[in-house]
Amino acid sequence: MATPGAFTTDHVPVYLLYTEIVDSVERHNEAERSFLSLFCDVTPKRFYHVRARSMDFEESGQDTTKPQMQHVTRSAISLTEPCRYILGTAITREAYERGISSDEVREAHQEALDADHRLVTQTILRACLTDGGWYDATVTPPTYKLNTFASTHDHYLAANVGGTPTFAHFSAAKTHILHHGYSRDIIVFLNNAQAAALEEASDFASNPTVSSTSMVDDLQKYGMTPQFQILGMPVVVDDWVPENYMFVVSLQLKPVVWRPTDNPETADLIVSTSTEESLGITYYFVEEYARWTSATVVRRGAGVAYYLGGSSWTDPTI
User: Which distant-in-sequence residues (6+ apart) come within 8 Å of 211 by Cβ?
Assistant: First the structure.
């Protein structure tokens, strides 16, 4: 008696692959993912409240003096509305009849999962490298210690240096972060082209030994091994950063918020799988993947974006 359904060339029935794919999506959603895990707090709320310096002691005049009632000031940051992205893939019945292996079916599914990882990464980096996330000369940052700031204070910097950063650029970016109170876990992310230009510069003298810290251990866990260290900052060379750009960020507190939908069932990657016929063609494994994305910078003083290919800031295409 024949078993219903299609088989692969290595005799794996389609219904077993279906179960395997559903299980792999669950594992994919449970896994921690580099930039999302490192950079983002997650909340479905529409606003994120950041505490600001708002309380000061006052001198007591007499024993009966009562202090004024003070309250915590919080700034409400509006989070980007989630956007829906979809991806479709399918394998025809004819492909099974001609011959397709189970590994080829799995590869089609794995490519969709990899595309989801790329989408999440690009969404977060777009928030970090698009004008308006960090301080952008539109608001006056709150004071920190004895540091006060003008409304023109800007964390989107530019230098017309042909893509080759100097120590002055690293120092400027680090200072921009330190004077807002983010003194730990400052990381540099740099494109490979900029790292090569830096290494070829005659005055380059980085420290190739990267200090072992809990943050460096976290970076390595997500496949981001720092290649060298500059001014005490580990440098991660990664082509997710566009050419002629770099950004420096403190991960002391997570600087970005990822906002899923209000529906917890669609907070991660969702996939629907079916068999259908369209225009006379029968498809097995018609899969529609959907991902809702939203990333917003909320720690505006914790990062600096640097454009190294011109004298004025230009948003990259991500």
Answer: 229, 232, 234
User: Quick count: other Cβ atoms within 10 Å of Cβ 128?
Assistant: 22
Contact 210, 160 (CB under 8 A): no
Round to whole Å and give the CA distance between 123 and 269: 14
Instruction: Answer left, alpha or beta for residue 244, where phi above 0 means left and psi between -120 and 50 means alpha.
Output: left
Rounded-to-integer distance, Cα 255 and Cα 294, Å: 14
Q: How far apart are CA 251 and CA 245, in angstroms?
A: 19
| CA distances, 198 to each of 67, 90, 161, 304 (Å) | 56, 45, 11, 19
Span between the terminal Cα atoms of the chain, in Å? 54
- What ranges do the domains of the chain cover? 14-51+75-125+258-294, 139-256+297-307
What is the Cβ-side half-sphere exposure of residue 18, based on CA atoms within 13 angstroms?
Answer: 16
DSSP H or E segment with residue 246? strand 245-250
| Percent of residues in the chain assigned helix, strand, coil, to nearest 5 | 30, 30, 45
- Specify the higher pLDDT residue, 242 or 97: 242
Nearest alpha-carbon partner for 296 in 74, 81, 121, 29: 81
Q: Please report where in the chains the tokens 């301080």 appear, as a residue.
A: 135
Q: What is the pLDDT of residues 192-250, one digit of tens each?
A: 999 988 888 756 665 666 777 888 888 888 888 888 888 889 999 999 999 999 999 99
Which one is the CATH code of 139-256+297-307: 3.40.50.620, 3.30.2320.10, 3.30.300.30, 3.40.367.20?
A: 3.30.2320.10
